[in-house]
Prior knowledge:
Elements: E1 11-15, H1 23-37, H2 46-65, H3 71-85, H4 96-105, H5 114-122, E2 126-131, H6 135-145, E3 153-156, H7 157-160, H8 167-181, E4 189-193, H9 196-205, E5 209-213, H10 222-233, E6 238-241
Parallel strand pairs: 1-2, 1-4, 2-3, 4-5, 5-6
Amino acid sequence: MNRPDMSKYKILLMDADNTLLDFTKAEAQALAEVFIKYNVCKEDMLPVVISRFSEINDALWKRLEKNEVTREYIIANRFKDTFEFFGIYYSAEMGIEEDYFNSLSFQYPLIEGAEAVCRALSENYDLYIITNGTKKIQDSRMAGCGLLPYFKGVFISQELGVNKPAKEYFDKVFEAVTKLSGPFDKSEVLVVGDSVSSDIKGAVNAELDGCWYNPAGKALSKSFDELAERSELSGRKLYEISRLEELLAK
Ligand SMILES: [Mg+2]
């Protein structure tokens, strides 16, 4: 896989979590706060409980991408399922989900290099955030992380009423981008993100070039190969980078 030829693009649609913001770290910090507050476990067990929650939560968000569950379903079940797994009493009235929301809203560690890369990119491209998230949380995290000045717009799926990777999500993004950046050709747009199932699949569904941010060097999956094939059929291409700085190379 090659890195993209950046001279072709005018507009970059960038994912937020685990592409620019370190969501794994943010989530662990917020969960540690609430699990300690609610006496869910002793400190030495925190990594185990946090990793179980992450697995359950990630699986639910993957189901949301496929329209199998709603955002409300995720919120009603992720703590419940985690607590049940460890045999801990859970009730929605406990308010843990609200506390988690509040805590997560103020966790916005950046991926290394994200600030410098966004600052440099913003001089040559119109940058937009595309994120599947909850409006209140993402608004607070985007404002807090310091990247907002480099972006012309932020598109949060909850606000748009559709999620990545649906084509309809990108249709709504195109409408807004046309207003903010003026008319553009789809060949001038690049999607950058860490998730094959949401960002890269979304790029393919919307007939845009896609760049997979793969810092861990994960192997290309069968689903990625299928997406690359679909992408080429529509005259588009998929790329891969392991560091955000690769977007700056001429
Ligand atoms: Mg992501």
